[in-house]
């Protein structure tokens, strides 16, 4: 038996000649809160996709709660909840329906499900809008609903890929308080990526820094600051990853698609 | 099972909430029914082939089922672009259940469209021999709907953009429809065309419905039933496999 709830070994993802994630290994202990930091295009989202069965690794292995994500897909899918970087709600359904359908897909019993939906929707302050179509929601409301949805089936691990993008400081604060609380109360493991260094500093117990598909540092916020001889975590982050501005948000998969499209049209 | 049910329910709700879709997709079948039915009716009658409306209605119903069923595949591409596909793909549900749920959902929508066309055809003078015949025709309508929804969904699972899907559909739909015996009797076609009709799965749907409604069948009802069922199962299996290969 292994004590880590997330166990990543020599994980690599190649898109043709482009190596998005290059032989990374790390482990996360049950109940830990880990921030995954890196500039745009560093390989964060590709890694999360491999951790959550959306992408098959080129090589290496990922185990969640001791089952392999490639050979035991359904088991591993049951163990985690996720908030994706981009919206993933059905706009034509109501807020309540989005959660209800999720609960059914995850096999949550009806009597538990309905109580849980109410509890979560009240927490994200959407209960009074439960019968509104999601297409009438603002970006922030959609985010909150996705967070509620990700937690509905009591996951052991909660993945959040840039969860606070587009949220105002109040909601952001509120959200992290809840997530930290949840971590304490139910011992849920939290693995998140963010662009806000101060969030990582405040929330995460440990930070993993990735750049160019490689893990370049790992430690508590304090350790990273001391190691690089910096005053703040932000300064430490910039020392690790450099000051150059990266291409905005072209994910590796998009890059691959663009390339394929190019050939198709010629 | 509950996953299949919930995917079915989702598609039904989405359909019932978009009235423009319901009404918009009736235009073409009604036009065909009225223009061809009344236009060719007298000639058909004179040639000794009987009532053309009776002959044509199963073909027009099959056409509306074909259009709705194949095009429901586009919802996969919508889901891909609006992100909901990720939510479905990370769910602890087998890809076979996803494929079946989507197919039954799309097929139900296609059958509602087909039923509306049936209802309209009554206004044009169509009469089934009995209620039992009509019920029997629904069996073939269901198989046709499942087969083509599965086909549309399987194709869409490989595509990323709407334009590509539209192109393939335009390429498929017209030949499938025109070379299915929906509009004319197959028996007197030249040999090559007859063969083309025989490899077109829609022909068996049209033939089955027509036979069930008391018309003359070309292939025989049991052949129609067998061909439609086997093809539906095969395409569902292929679609499930393609779903399991989707990476985002």
Automatic annotation (TrEMBL), chain A:
SMART domains: AAA. GO terms for molecular function: ATP binding; ATP hydrolysis activity. Residues 6-237 form the ABC transporter domain. Gene3D superfamilies: P-loop containing nucleotide triphosphate hydrolases. It is found in: Cell membrane. GO terms for cellular component: plasma membrane. Transmembrane segments: none annotated. GO terms for biological process: daunorubicin transport; doxorubicin transport. Pfam families: ABC_tran. It is a peripheral membrane protein. Its main location: membrane. Keywords: ATP-binding, Cell membrane, Membrane, Nucleotide-binding, Translocase, Transport. InterPro entries: AAA+_ATPase (IPR003593), ABC_transporter-like_ATP-bd (IPR003439), ABC_transporter-like_CS (IPR017871), DrrA (IPR005894), P-loop_NTPase (IPR027417). NCBIfam families: drrA. Belongs to the ABC transporter superfamily. Drug exporter-1 (DrugE1) (TC 3.A.1.105) family. This is Multidrug ABC transporter ATP-binding protein. It comes from Candidatus Gottesmanbacteria bacterium RIFOXYB1_FULL_47_11.
TrEMBL record, chain B:
It is found in: Cell membrane; Membrane. This is Transport permease protein. InterPro entries: ABC2_TM, ABC2_TM_bact-type, ABC_2_transport, Daunbcin-R_ABC-transpt, Nod_factor_ABC_transporter. The keyword Transport applies. The chain crosses the membrane at residues 21-40, 52-78, 99-122, 134-155, 167-186, 225-243. PANTHER family: NODULATION PROTEIN J. Coiled coil: none annotated. GO terms for molecular function: ABC-type transporter activity. Residues 20-246 form the ABC transmembrane type-2 domain. Belongs to the ABC-2 integral membrane protein family. It comes from Candidatus Gottesmanbacteria bacterium RIFOXYB1_FULL_47_11. It is a multi-pass membrane protein. Keywords: Cell membrane, Membrane, Transmembrane, Transmembrane helix, Transport. It holds the Pfam family ABC2_membrane. One of its GO terms (cellular component) is ATP-binding cassette (ABC) transporter complex.
């Amino acid at each position: 038996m292994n004590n880590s709830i997330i166990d990543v070994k020599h994980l690599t993802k190649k898109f043709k000649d482009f190596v998005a994630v290059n032989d990374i290994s790390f482990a996360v202990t049950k109940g830990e809160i880990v921030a995954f930091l890196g500039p745009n295009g560093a390989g964060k989202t590709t890694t999360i996709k491999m951790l959550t069965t959306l992408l098959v690794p080129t090589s290496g292995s990922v185990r969640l709660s001791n089952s392999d994500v490639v050979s035991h897909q359904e088991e591993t899918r049951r163990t985690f909840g996720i908030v994706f970087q981009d919206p993933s709600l059905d706009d034509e359904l109501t807020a309540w329906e989005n959660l209800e359908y999720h609960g059914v897909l995850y096999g949550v019993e009806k009597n538990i499900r309905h109580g849980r939906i109410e509890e979560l929707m009240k927490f994200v302050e959407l209960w009074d809008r439960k019968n509104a179509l999601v297409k009438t929601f603002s970006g922030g409301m959609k985010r909150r609903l996705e967070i509620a949805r990700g937690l509905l089936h009591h996951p052991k691990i909660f993945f959040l890929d840039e969860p606070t993008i587009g949220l105002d400081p109040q909601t952001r604060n509120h959200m992290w308080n809840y997530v930290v609380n949840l971590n304490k109360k139910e011992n849920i493991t939290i693995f998140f990526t963010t662009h806000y260094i101060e969030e990582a500093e405040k929330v995460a117990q440990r930070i993993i820094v990735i750049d160019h598909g490689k893990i370049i540092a790992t430690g508590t916020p304090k350790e990273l600051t001391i190691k690089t001889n910096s005053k703040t975590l932000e300064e430490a982050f910039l020392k690790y990853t450099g000051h150059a501005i990266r291409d905005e948000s072209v994910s590796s998969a998009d890059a691959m698609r663009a390339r394929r499209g190019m050939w198709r049209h010629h | 099972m509950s996953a299949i049910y919930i995917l079915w329910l989702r598609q039904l709700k989405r359909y019932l909430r978009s009235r423009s879709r319901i009404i918009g997709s009736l235009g073409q079948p009604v036009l065909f029914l009225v223009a061809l039915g009344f236009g060719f009716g007298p000639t058909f009658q004179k040639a000794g082939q009987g009532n053309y409306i009776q002959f044509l209605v199963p073909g027009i119903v099959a056409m509306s089922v074909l259009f709705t069923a194949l095009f429901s595949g586009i919802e996969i591409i919508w889901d891909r672009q609006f992100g909901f596909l990720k939510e479905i793909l990370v769910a602890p549900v087998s890809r076979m259940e996803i494929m079946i749920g989507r197919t039954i959902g799309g097929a139900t929508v296609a059958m509602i469209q087909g039923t509306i066309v049936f209802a309209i055809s009554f206004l044009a003078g169509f009469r089934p021999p009995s209620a039992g015949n009509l019920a029997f025709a629904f069996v073939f309508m269901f198989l046709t709907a499942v087969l083509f929804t599965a086909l549309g969904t399987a194709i869409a699972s490989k595509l990323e953009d709407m334009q590509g899907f539209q192109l393939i559909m335009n390429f498929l739909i017209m030949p499938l429809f025109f070379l299915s015996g929906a509009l004319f009797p197959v028996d007197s076609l030249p040999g090559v065309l007859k063969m083309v009709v025989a490899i077109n799965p829609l022909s068996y749907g049209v033939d089955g419905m027509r036979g069930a409604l008391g018309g003359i069948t070309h292939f025989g009802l049991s052949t129609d039933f067998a061909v439609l069922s086997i093809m539906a199962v095969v395409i569902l299996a292929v679609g499930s496999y393609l779903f399991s290969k989707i990476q985002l």
